Amino acid sequence: MKWTVIDTISCPNTGIAFSGIVSLKMLKLIIWYEGSVIIPPGSVIEPFENSVKIDGEYTPMKIYNVTTFKQSAWKELKDKITCREGLLDDSALCLSPFRCALKVCPYGKERPQQSA
Length: 116
Description:
Strand 4 and strand 5 form a beta hairpin. The chain has a six-stranded antiparallel barrel with strand order 1-2-3-6-5-4. It has two helices and six strands; from the N terminus they run E-E-E-E-E-E-H-H. It is mainly beta.
């Protein structure tokens, strides 16, 4: 079954991303996952046993949970989970003093190299 991503929220504290998805029959769900990608809105996904096909490309990821999409719960989740660093400036580097658990930055920023 194919799904279209409505919106995605990424939690820098846990490394878990949440994507609101909708089927062709208008069934709406939220998937909780972790992987090397954050699925952008508008992407078409198809779940498989150990991976997800995102816009035609197989991507391994761990899916933790699938729940019913409720607009009020989504808004509350979105209000609580934020990465202030992504909103601060247009720099290519993430200068947040806090450790980020995400494998990839939803804002496309790179982490500076740590000196040993």
